[in-house]
Amino acid sequence: MGVSGSGKSTVGEDLAARLHAAYQEGDSLHPAANVDKMSHGIPLTDADRRPWLLAIAAIIDGWLDRHEAGVVTCSALKRAYRELLIGAREGVALVYLEGSHELIGERMAARHGHFMPTALLDSQFATLEPPGADEAPITVSVDAPPEAIVETIIRHLGVNDR
């Protein structure tokens, strides 16, 4: 989880590959209306996000039902969103990619072809409720290269990725 531009997709793909796990990019599950709103610089409401979050939760439930490992990336900016996604699901870990507004803004400005404009970064940070200790997050700074971030996550998960 983390704001747009924090590196969720890059880190998520790399982590899934290292863990030989399924990968799901949460943004690909947004309804077309959500993508249209965001591409026009309009922040999503909680009502806009609910079907998207439920679709992500369904992916997680499928992995759990099949006893499969998986990595899903999404912003999950609010505690209420994370409750929908994780809740009482056993074995689901929360990774928070944390970074400064300045660094993430620079990264967003440098990327091309993404529907989320840099103009929405302020609303992302305004909405962000960093996970509390009771959510047991694995918090990793995005100042490091993706490979180092993945190594940190694997170390915290305590899994063997070889």
Main attributes of the structure:
single chain; 162 residues; mainly alpha; Rossmann fold; two-stranded parallel sheet; two-stranded parallel ribbon; 4 strands; 10% strand; globular
Please describe what this structure looks like.
This protein has a single domain (8-156), classed as P-loop containing nucleotide triphosphate hydrolases (Rossmann fold, 3-Layer(aba) Sandwich). It is mostly helical. The longest helix is centred in the middle third of the chain and has 20 residues, at 46-65. It is 47% helix and 10% strand. Helix 1 (8-19) packs across helix 7. It has helices at 8-19, 32-39, 46-65, 79-85, 101-110, 121-127, 146-157; strands spanning 22-25, 70-73, 95-98, 138-141. The strands form two sheets. Strands 1-2 form a two-stranded parallel ribbon. Strands 3-4 form a two-stranded parallel ribbon.
Radius of gyration: 15 Å
Assigned CATH superfamily = P-loop containing nucleotide triphosphate hydrolases
Beta-strand residue percentage: 5-15%
> Treating each run of at least 4 consecutive H or I residues as one helix, how many helices?
7
How would you sum up this structure in a few lines?
The chain is mainly α and 162 residues long.
Chain-wise SSE layout:
Blueprint: H1 8-19, E1 22-25, H2 32-39, H3 46-65, E2 70-73, H4 79-85, E3 95-98, H5 101-110, H6 121-127, E4 138-141, H7 146-157
Parallel strand pairs: 1-2, 3-4
Helix pairs in contact: 1-7
